[in-house]
Every structure is written in structure tokens, then in C-alpha cells.
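Q: How would the C-alpha cells look for this protein?
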Amino acid sequence: MKYLTLVFFFSFLSFSQNQEAKIFFNDGETFEGFASITGNNKIKFRLNLEDEPTKFSSNEISRVEFYGLYTEAIFEYVKLNNQYNLLQVLTEGEVTLYAEVKTSWSVLFLNLNTFGAGQYSDTNFFTLYLINKKFPKPFNKNPFVGWKKKMMEYFSDCDELVRKIKANEFNRNDLKEIVEYYNDFCTDL
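A: Here is the predicted structure in C-alpha cell form.
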């Protein structure tokens, strides 16, 4: 889970700059160029680095795929609580695992003599969502509290996976592997 958290955090930081990307419009059209994610869940996109960027939201696009020398990641707009949020796809299939990070900043102390210089602290809050294509309601209960029971209920249509969870072959740090196992061995894809 620590690895998953670090990958998500660093990939999120990477996409605040222009990076090679492909955007997917809601009408099925796609374009390749350069994109970045803004702080308010919008995508800035340009065909060439010399062009002015255009901002897009969930009204126009459904997905952006970043690729390049060091990083590849996919972000999709997902409807949560009647609004669309831009979430990173960690693994996809019949069940898709998404991650969302929110950063909270707080001032530890402020030095008025230096016009606002001081010490600041940031805290990242990660939320993981499981979304099943058959039942698109997101499952985002805290997977670390009673996770075994929740996972066995969520994946109850796959006896072998439930057995593996019950036998501790998978633990709460293996959420991505659990979803991948389900998609590989428990669906008709």
C-alpha cells in the first residue's frame, strides 16, 4: 500500500506540468498533444507546446492518458455524489480501482517580519474507490477497517478469491492485486 500511495502521489505531481498525453472526448473523438491537470479537476490541453492551452472538464472529456519518458498514468472523470471527480485509474477491468488525493495545507507558524514566510505543512488524504461495471455505485468504505469482511462481501461472486482473502493470502495492502485477481480469474472479460 505504501508503494501504491507513493506512485499515486508522485504521478499526481508529475501531471501538474505539461506532459505528452491523449485526451478522450465524450463523443468518442481523441487527440494527442500535451496536457496538465489543474487544481480544480480540469484538464489543460494543447496540441503543441507553443499553443495556448484550452481547459476542459467532465462536460467535454471523459479520460486523459499521460505517457512519456518516466511516467504513464490514466485519469478518468467518475461520478461520485452527483458530481464528477478526476480520479487516477490504478487498475481497470470489470472492477476498476481508482484513487483520489486531496491535499490539506496548514500554517505551523507565520513570521510577520518576513511578510508571510514561515513553516507550512501539507497532508495528503487518499481515497480508494472500487467501481464494478455491473453495479456502478462506487465502493469507498475505508478498506482498512473491517477490510476482510468488506472485501469478501464485495467479491462474493468469486469463491476462490473469497477463500484466498479468508486464508490471508491477500491482506489489506494488496487491494490492487485483489482487483487484478478478480478481473483475471472471476469475470467473463
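Helices lie at 2-14, 147-154, 159-166, 175-185.

The chain has two domains: 2-140, 144-189.

Upvote if useful.
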